[in-house]
Design goal:
Elements (H helix, E strand, L loop, with lengths): L1 H31 L2 H10 L5 H18 L2 H18 L4 H16 L6 H10 L4 H24 L2 H10 L1
Helix pairs in contact: 1-4, 2-4, 3-4, 3-5, 4-5, 5-7, 5-8, 6-7
Length: 164
Amino acid sequence: MMRQAIEGTMRTTAMIMLIIIAAVFLNFVLSIIGLTQALTNFVTGLGWTPMQTMLMIVAVLILIGCFMETLSMLLTMAPLITPIVVALGFDPVWFGILLMVLLETALITPPIGINLYVVQGIRKSGPMIDVIKGALPFVVTMFVMLALLLMFPNLALWLPSLFY
C-alpha cells in the first residue's frame, strides 16, 4: 500500500513538473521572439483607458479559465499579461491578487473546473449538472469579489501596505 502511494505521488509530481518545464520553455521562446514586448506595445497602443484594458484582460482570463487548467493558465498567461498590466500603471501586487482570484474562479467554472469533478467524484451518484448548479452561487460570489477588487484596488492592497 505504501509503495502504491509513493508511485502515485511520483507520477503526479512528474506530471506537474512536465507542465512546469513546458511552460518555462514556452515562456523562454516567447521572450526570445519578442512576443511579450510586441503584445504589450499592441495593447497599450489600442487607445483604451487602463480600466477598459483591464476589463478586457479579466474577460479573456475568465474565458480561458473555463477551458484551461489553472496551473497551465498561470504559467502561460502571467508572463504575457503582467508586463501589460505594469505598463498600464497598475500595481503588480494588486494584479497578482486579482490573478489568484481569477484562477480560483476557474477552478469552479464549467466545463473544465477541476473542483467540480472532484465534488462529482466524491458524491459518486447523481448528474454533474447538480454539482454545477450548486457551484453557481460561488461563481457569482467570485465575480462580485472580482468586481470589488477592480473598483476598489485598496481592498487588496491594504494588508500588504501594512508590511511595506
